[in-house]
Sequence to fold (86 residues):
Amino acid sequence: MDEQTTRMIQQLKSNPAALQALMQSRDGQALLQMLSGGDQGASLQRAAQSAAKGNPAEMARLVRQVMDTPDGAALVERISKAMGGR
Fold:
């Protein structure tokens, strides 16, 4: 995960209102769909549970998969800009 994505995640963790607004936005919904993949969100749920227990590796893998696609990278860039990133 790159530094910009790490900063964005930290910002979302510290600001629940921003996270809620993101998840209700079109880009947030698209990101959620990309992270959910073809298994109806099972992988995302496992990754979130792991991250909540202090092991973010699986979540980082899912984010990398999204960012390795042109559409995913553009989506994360738009989200970052909307949150005040570069």
Q: What stands out?
A: Residues 21 and 40 are 22 Å apart (CA to CA). Residues 56-86 form one domain.
